[in-house]
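Session log. Operator J.P. requested a structure for one protein chain; no other inputs attached. Running the standard single-chain path with token output.
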Amino acid sequence: MLEREVIQSVGFRNIRENGSITGFQFKIRLPYYRGVFLCQLRPGTLFVDGERFEKEDIVWNVDGVDYTWEDMKTDMDTHWNVTRPAVLKVKKEGGLSQGFHDLTYGFCFTSSYMPPIMQDALDPDEEAVIFMPEFGKHVNSRRLIIV
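Structure written below.
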């Protein structure tokens, strides 16, 4: 079951590959009442304890498949369902230390029935001028713990 918050508490952990910690991951849910195709997504910047991670440094895992930002821009076939969280994987040698971490992540998405002028103004790192609850917030923050 998904939590109300966009940034989920379940799934926040370091990534271990070949015996070394190579980064960390966390899960997000889609704050929209219907799913979107990957090409509709506009990923933003991730901040963890003030450290900045660009969208190019984040791999999205949707339904068990990894996608870079470059992959997502042209993927009109993969659909992210509102009932399934996406796993965001971030490269960071050594991962994150044990304890609490403050995450802030922004993303938004286009919609076929919204006027182009509104979609051109979408900025995943800034809250929308006009907030419509059915589209969710663009920027979400949460304090999580790695044990």
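Operator note: Residues 32 and 135 are 5 Å apart (CA to CA).
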